[in-house]
Amino acid sequence: MISFTDVTKVYPDGTTAVGGLTLEAPTGQITVFVGPSGCGKTTSLRMINRMIEPTSGVIAIDGRDTGSMNPTELRRGIGYVIQSGGLFPHRTIVENVMTVPLLLGWDKNKARATAMELLERVGLSTSLAKRYPNQLSGGQQQRVGVARALASDPPIMLMDEPFSAVDPIVRDQLQDEFLRLQNELGKTIVFVTHDIDEAVKLGDQVAVLRVGGTLAQLATPDRLLADPYDDFVADFLGRDRGYRGLAFASAPALAIEPETSVRLGATPQEALAAAAGRDWLLVVDDDGAPVGWVEPRKLREPVSRGFLHRGGTVARQGGSLRAALDAALSSPARRGVLVDDAGRLVGTVQARDVLTEIERGPQVSAPAEERIEDTP
Amino acid sequence: MNALWTWLFDPANWGGAGGIWQRIGEHLIYSGVTVLIASLVAIPLGLWIGHTGKGRLLVVNLVNGIRALPTLGLLFIAVLLLGPRLSGDLAFLLPAIFVLVVLAIPPILAGTYSGVDEVDPSARDAATGMGMTPGQVLRDVEIPCALPLIFSGIRSATLQVIATATIAAWVSLGGLGRFLNDGQASQDYGQMAGGALLVAVLAVLVDLVLAGLQRLLVSPGLSAPRQTRRRRRGEADAAPSAGAAGAAGSGSADARSVSVDAAEPSST
């Protein structure tokens, strides 16, 4: 656990970057610092490994005051990932990942073996190991940055906008993999971002900071969306809070209807028969995974991928209400496609059933939530 | 032209005391000692300035100021001041090496300083954040990353020194400058032209050797895409400094933020 106790940072020119921050980042969880620029989120992060020294207050790791520790030793025990990767351009990928183990005096072979294992773990082919950072894409570099931070298996990771320099598609992918990795590793992570969507997606708890480095609200993402503490937090969270909040509500009891489908390659006659008078028919591939919708009446030749309407999103059974609702709304047939964990078709849901479930489900509001008093 | 080839291809001119081989050897020794001393002064200073960020203004002013000094004039002053206190050949050798060192320091200093200064701040930040000590950051990150620019500074300095070491002959020392001086005195234009040609060839050959060394020592990760981007930016910054030495030194285009390629020294 990392605890901030009344931590401030005032720069020599009088600017207050962090103004009396008190919070805890629980062990094994992701705590996200989010806020507009100038809210001191990066400063707060960098004070944990003493890249910046606090003006006053105490930051403790598992009860030990970091101010009493040797900064170099402290940093070697904390994974550190920064925005642009910060890879060493003169070292190969595997050498980059080996940095901290070698600083800790590991045997070179052991360090190399660990590094290779980590490259695979973060989704990089080990054939990239001998390349140099400038031969990799931004997303790949960022994965190397994560692998490098994990190399000595530190219990704590500090991540400063690690995914903000890559394009949105890659970012989404990196976020998903990051969550998968964290599921396996269970690190204590402090993550800084300016992107509230990223904060809500990744955080076990989210600390919203306001300019001047004070805490506006500390809450789990669903509570944050359901019950913003004040106008600042509400504004910062932005629109569609109700809809986005559904991402945290699961739908175990959703009414799933069986859906007739045909495989790719079905003839127009087969398709018409299967549709049984409905306008849209779902098409699956040989593994039973939905690939898109067709209109059987307009079909003149066997179903191929080129004919498919691909507007519909696919939701996982037992996933969030948001995904189920979106699947229903985006489907041309207005029937949202649900799949199992292996991606095979389970059935479909309609928007009205999802809405019924939303209304029936527990209201996501949290009057008992711990509110943080604002210190002006 | 004929006189040049006659002089150059006459075996009698190559061997023996005062022959071409001996002059080349002397020239290389003067140049080598000079670049060595200049590097010992300029590289640590450049590393310190680049690492700490202190004294940048000093570098720019020092480098440009020294460049404005006329080397030959400086040589005569140095001989006049230092000569009487020394005996024998040293009375001329030491002043000559001194002025050449003064000539060689600016490009090496500028190259080293800007090399360290230009290290990607995020790489430096990551290095410290992962628990490297300041010494480790300098040794394992800043110096290796600065090597391309350090090298181009050394190459640029070496070219200038080889070209300018001919002035040693003005104060009765050896080196290839002898052929220029003696040729002029005896109106032997073949000898003069031959000497000049040898200086140019020597400069190119030494630069090739240094380029090979650079290739061996500098990480391949620092060349290719990244480097070209830097060079393009560098050319925009240092456009007015497209210098005479640049003709033979491809590396000299790199050391840019303080323009390294000054005009050729006045004496040649």
UniProtKB/TrEMBL annotation, chain B:
InterPro entries membership: ABC_transp_perm/SBD (IPR051204), MetI-like (IPR000515), MetI-like_sf (IPR035906)
Location of this chain's protein in the cell: Cell membrane; Membrane
A matching Pfam family: BPD_transp_1
Region (Disordered): 224-268
Biased composition (Low complexity): 237-268
Record membrane topology: Multi-pass membrane protein
Gene3D superfamilies linked: MetI-like (1.10.3720.10)
Ranges for domain ABC transmembrane type-1: 24-210
Family per record: Belongs to the binding-protein-dependent transport system permease family.
Protein name: Osmoprotectant (Glycine betaine/ carnitine/choline/l-proline) ABC transporter ProZ
Source species of the chain: Arsenicicoccus piscis
